[in-house]
Amino acid sequence: MTTATTPVPQGTPTRPSEVARPGDRTADRLFATGIRNQWYAVCPSDFVPAGGMKRLTLLGEEWLLFRRADGTLHMLEDRCPHRGARLSLGKHLGDRIACWYHGVQVDGTGTVAAVPGLPGCNLEGKQLVAAPHLIETGGAILAYFGDHTHAEPAPLTLPEPLTDPGTSAFLCYAEWNVNWRYAVENLLDPMHGSFLHRDSHSMAEGQTTARFRIRETERGFFFEKTDQSGVNFDWVELCRTGVDWVDLTIPYPPTAGPGGPFGIVGMATPIDENRCSVFFWRYRKVTGWQRDTWRFLYKTLLEDRHWEVLEQDRVMLEDLRADADQAENLYQHDLGVVRVRRMYRTEAETQAAKA
What is the residue range of the signal peptide feature (predicted)? Predict the structure, then answer.
C-alpha cells in the first residue's frame, strides 16, 4: 500500500484548517455537512490550472483554491481577515491573493503578506486565514479538514488503484443535489445494482435475491453477498485510511476487451447539507497493449454507458423524499447502510462533544 503522510507538497502550511463559527459544530451539523479530522476529495486537478483560481463550497464552508505558475497548489478560506470580503473576488499575484476590497495580501499559508494601505500594520506576518493541507492523486485534489484539536493532518493511505503503476484509471466527477451520506449509503447497498441498473451491460447477470454479511478488515469492512460472487455488484469494501473510500469490482463482458473485471474507487464529499460531489475512478489492472486497448474502448464505447449508470443513481437519489431516512423499514440487505450511518452519527456526536 502506498502511504502519503506529512510532509505534504511544498508550500502547504501547517496551520489548522479550523474555520468554524459558533454553533457550526453541533452533531446534527456535522452529520449533515461532514465529519472532520479526515481527508476529502475536493475537485479534479484540472479545475485549477497554473495561475488559476477556483472558488468552491466544501463541508458547508467556502474556500478558494489557487495554483502558482510552477504548479504549487494552495487552499484558503474564502474570507479576507481584514473585513471578511471574499478573497475569490481578488487578484492572483502568483504566490498570494490580493483582496479586491482594500488590497490586503494573503499568501498560500494563510499569512497576511502585506497591507498596502498601511505598511507595517500589525496584521502583517500573522496567519489569520485557514489553509488546509493538500495532496493530489489520480487527477484529483484532496484536502484535510481538521478541528482546533486536530490541526495536523491524519495519516493518509491512498487507494491502491490510484497509485499502482499496473492499474489504469479514469476519474468521473459529478455534483448531485443530495446529502453526501445518501451517496455513500448507495454504494453500501449492492442489491440496488440488480434492480436500478438491471439494464446495464455490466449488471445484467446474476440473481435478484441474495443474503449478505459484514466482514471486518483492518481498514474497514466488506459488505458482501454470501451466495454469489463475481457475477454482478456482489460486494463493496468501505476503507477508512485517512480518507473514506469504497472499492468494488464488477465483471466485464468480453466485448469490453482484455483485462478482466473493472473496479471502482468511489468517494463522496459534502458541499453543503443538500449537495455533494462524487468521485468515481473506474479502473482495470492492465499493462502494455491491454492497457492501450482498455483506454481506447473506454473513451470510445464504455464511458457513455458508465455515465448512464451514474445518471440512474443521480435521478434516484435526488428524488428521494425529504424524510427518506425517517420512515424506513429496513431489512437484511440494508446492514451496510445501517452500519455506515451509525458510524458517521457516532463520530459526529463525539466530535461535537469535544468542539
Answer: none
Amino acid at 39: W
User: How far is C-alpha 77 from the geometric centre of its chain's CA atoms?
Assistant: 18
Report DSSP letters for 126-194, one per residue: -B-S----EEEETTEEEEEE--TT--SPPPEE--HHHH-TT-EEEEEEEEESS-HHHHHHHHT-GGGGG
pLDDT of residue 13: 41
For cell 504548479, name the residue: 71
Which amino acid appears at position 294 of this protein? W
Domains of the chain in sequence order: 41-144 (2.102.10.10), 156-348 (3.90.380.10)
Question: Would you state the torsion angle of the CA atoms of residues 151, 156, 162, 167, taken in this order, to the nearest 10 degrees?
Answer: 170
Q: What is the mean pLDDT of the chain?
A: 88
Rounded Cα gap, residues 263 and 187, in angstroms: 13
How far apart are alpha carbons 314 and 197 in whole angstroms?
A: 12
* 278-304 pLDDT, tens digit each: 999 999 999 999 999 989 988 998 888
Say if residue 14 is exposed, middle or buried (CB neighbours under 10 Å; 0-12, 13-18, 19+). middle
CB distance 18 to 148 below 8 Å: yes
Total residues belonging to the chain: 355
Q: Are 90 and 97 in contact (CB under 8 A)?
A: yes
Closest CA to 306 of 317, 298, 314: 298
Edge-to-edge strand ranges of the sheet holding 73-77: 53-58, 61-67, 73-77
Cis peptide upstream of residue 161 (ω within 30 degrees of 0): no
